[in-house]
UniProtKB/TrEMBL annotation:
The protein, known as: Phenol hydroxylase
Taxonomic lineage from the root: Bacteria, Pseudomonadati, Pseudomonadota, Betaproteobacteria, Rhodocyclales
InterPro entries the record matches: DmpK
Length: 97
């Protein structure tokens, strides 16, 4: 039982220190921002919506890497551009903030 708890704690610790990603997917009336949020793997995300000021605070608190859709229409399919942006950022490529 203790070993299982240790494994869970180690996994959670890894998540806490993982990169976090945000990709804006739309704007709604009333100043709401629609976006995807991911921890560790940008392919596994949740869709969220927040008012503009709350979105900015959310991004700052999570130190989120903002993914852009500048290469959205790549040949690899819908998700390929996200992975490419992440690889560039991690490797210190042209999109490094």
């Amino acid at each position: 039982m203790l070993r299982e708890r240790g494994d869970v704690v180690q996994q959670l610790s890894g998540l806490i220190h993982s990169r976090r990603y945000v990709r804006v997917t739309g704007n709604r009336p009333g100043g709401f921002i629609e976006f995807d949020f991911a921890i560790g793997d940008p392919e596994l995300f949740v869709e969220l919506i927040l008012p503009q000021n709350a979105f900015e605070e959310f991004c700052a608190r999570n130190r989120a890497v903002v993914l852009t859709s500048s290469s959205e229409h790549c040949a690899d399919g819908e998700m390929g551009w996200r992975l490419r942006d992440v690889v560039d950022r991690v490797a210190g490529g042209p999109h490094e903030a």
